Amino acid sequence: MGYSARYHAASLIAVFIALAVGILVGAEFGGDALTNTRRDLEHSLVGNLQDARSRADDLNADLNRADEFAERVYPVLTRERLLGRRFAILALGNLPSDITGEVEEALAPTGGRLVGVGVVREPADINGLAEDLAQTRLADLRTNPDALTELGTGLGRQLVVGGTLPDVVRGHLFSRTSGSFGNLDGVIVVRDQPEEMELPQREKTNQLEGGLMNGITRTRVPAVGVETSTDDTSNVPFFQSNDLASVDDVDLKAGQLAMVFAMLGADGSFGVKGSADQLLPDLLTGAE
Asked: Per residue in 208-246, is it b (16+ CB within 10 Å) or e — as a string?
């Protein structure tokens, strides 16, 4: 919301400037008949521009105070709420560089730990996965859609509770990983699919994603999909369709607070975009 207000104020100033320049330039070609009109417009536009600048200054001051308030209150509301709990980020496709930092910042006062990060390779490497599983009942991944869904479901579950399957396919499942999975108390999901995938690749990748989300949610640990308020494409509909809580403004303190309470069990879509149910969850939900 803060960024929208700043953008609105700046846009208003730009409109006044452009309008003033356009009228003044046009008036130069209108002769003496337009002199009085130009003078009146000059005075009017200067006054409007000054008002717009003053309003922008007031908005920035209000927003700066709100930011300072949020920075001070956030640690009080979240201190040791997640003490001793283990969390991991599972990114589908790509992991934007700022997301990990935002999650770590959100967890800092809670006592919770980010213990693992995994970026799922997309498009899915079906051939590589099939080779890894050649001696198992999932060896027919290339031709059997049900096997791909079953694989995704098994992987999603074992990434949370532990198991050997993720290690068997790690090289072809992930483009990169760090830390460890298993024995998790919550999963933070990020989705950033490559745009250049062909339709058959996208269909198989979506199927694997759906299986992963199904496996995670079946464990009943909290799972929340996150994105930033500035993301051009929102994945909230994907999170909603897979029964995940969602936060669309994890780059803001309000979004970080919503993420923490989603990890405590709050359900819903939170944030500042049109797909959000509300800005924040009930702060009493799951607080124990």
From this structure: bbbbbbbbbbebebbbbbbbbbebeebbbebbbebebbb
pLDDT at position 28 is: 54
- CB 92, CB 64: distance < 8 Å: no
Instruction: Report DSSP letters for 134-149, one per residue.
Output: TTSTTTTTTT-HHHHH
Phi, psi angle pair for 19, to nearest 5°: -65, -45
10 Å CB burial of residue 166 (0-12, 13-18, 19+) is buried
pLDDT in tens, 100-154: 999 999 999 999 999 999 999 999 999 999 999 999 999 999 999 899 999 999 9
Q: Which residues contact 227 (CB under 8 A, 6 or more apart)?
A: 99, 190, 191, 234, 235, 236, 246, 247, 248, 250
Find, among 245, 283, 256, 226, the residue nearest to 106 by Cα: 256
